[in-house]
Specification:
Helix content is 23%, strand content 29%. The strands form four sheets. Strands 9, 10, 11, 12, 13, 14, 15, 16 and 17 form a nine-stranded antiparallel beta sheet that branches. Strands 5-8-6-7 form a four-stranded antiparallel beta sheet. A two-stranded parallel ribbon has the order 1-2. It binds adenosine-5'-diphosphate and magnesium ion (MG). Adenosine-5'-diphosphate binds next to strand 8, strand 9 and strand 14.
């Protein structure tokens, strides 16, 4: 289609996955490998501004696009966050705590760790999500074999709660955070999110301050989500940084005047800022694997419940197939 014919809000998706939900909601899409530079060129030429919602797109690809068109967030940021080790170093350099961790490359190195560091979680430094690439190690007495890879070993802490803060930063430097959200995971996969989180005012203020310190020091444009751990003594730690809209923020669609998705696109497209305001309390439930059928098959869904289907074909175990948000009164 010649460029002039496209609508003002024309959106174009590039993905490496056949059954990719965004392609079902976009004006145009290309399915190809991220290193298919010929197909990428067609995509780059058609767009004015480019953003991404998956942090594991190869840095080389993002940087290639960045040389030709504006990309938000800056691919340099993604480069820091794609590696759990450089991510944690970056956070600690801002004087923000993470749980204690060690760098590990092979079984021999693991065997040298002091027994008192356990229980711990061994995580691959790259390409992990939804608990993938993670192994809980209770003690070195366990029968251990690890494949050669770059890992970090994180002390496993007793969690009182997990929270996340969604923050948006616009091109004019204006900055807004949504209220902290409380998250419950099942088998290391997000299960429910509740907004606002039931935490002290002090913790809320600290989590928002640290999120804003992180986004500002990255000179970041768009939506970022910072995941936090709270231990039984109410110590707060940053768990990880998601340089994108986040699953825990899906409830902002119904419970705020402006959703995380709108905020992200407004910032990336340099539209005028809108400050998020909570309209009502809400809880989101992820529909994993076959859970989706409970809602797909339902004719009438209760008032105050909003069902979102990602229309993925195969309901694999643990796969995020959709979610429901309940407005709490
Ligand atoms: P992913 O990139 O897969 O989201 P995370 O590091 O966020 O990986 O881990 C997923 C979940 O596993 C966390 O939300 C938390 O519930 C649990 N978890 C991860 N690290 C720790 C830890 N050090 N101590 C206790 N629980 C943890
Ligand atoms: Mg996580």
């Amino acid at each position: 289609m010649p460029r002039g014919k496209r609508s003002k809000n024309f959106n174009f998706i590039f993905t490496d996955t056949e059954d990719s939900p965004a392609t079902k909601f976009s004006d145009e899409h290309i399915i190809a490998q991220y290193d298919d530079f010929e197909k990428l060129e067609k995509f780059i030429q058609a767009c004015d501004v480019i953003t991404y919602e998956f942090e594991n797109i190869p840095y080389k690809t993002l940087n290639h696009i960045f040389k030709k068109k504006p990309v938000y967030p800056d691919p340099q940021i993604n480069n820091i966050i794609q590696d759990r080790l450089s991510e944690k170093k970056f956070i600690n350099d801002l004087n923000i705590p993470t749980v204690p961790y060690l760098q590990i490359e092979d079984s021999n190195q693991l065997l040298l760790v002091e027994e008192k560091f356990f229980p711990a979680i061994l995580k691959t430094r790259r390409l992990g999500y939804d608990g993938k690439g993670q192994t809980v190690i209770n003690s070195l007495k366990e029968d251990l074999y690890i494949e050669k890879n770059d890992y970090i070993l994180e002390k496993r802490i007793e969690l009182k709660s997990e929270i996340s803060v969604i923050t948006v930063r616009y091109q004019d430097n204006s900055l807004f955070s949504y209220k902290p959200i409380e998250n419950i995971h099942k088998d290391q996969i997000l299960y429910t999110s509740t907004s606002p989180a039931s935490i002290s005012q002090e913790l809320q203020t600290k989590a928002i301050k640290w999120s804003q310190d992180i986004i500002e020091s990255l000179n970041y444009v768009g939506v970022i989500c910072i995941e936090f751990f709270v231990d039984k003594y109410d110590n707060l730690f940053v768990n990880e940084i998601a340089p994108r809209v986040h699953n825990s923020g899906h409830l902002t669609i119904e419970s705020y005047n402006v959703s995380q998705f709108q905020s992200h696109l407004r910032a990336v497209c340099d539209l005028s800022p809108i400050g998020p305001e909570l309209k009502s309390k809400a809880q989101m439930l992820n529909l994993l694997g076959e859970d989706i059928y409970r809602y797909r098959d339902q004719k009438k869904i209760e008032k105050n419940i909003y069902f979102h289907d990602y229309f993925k074909k195969e309901a694999k175990k643990g796969r995020k197939m959709g979610h429901v948000t309940k407005i709490l009164t």
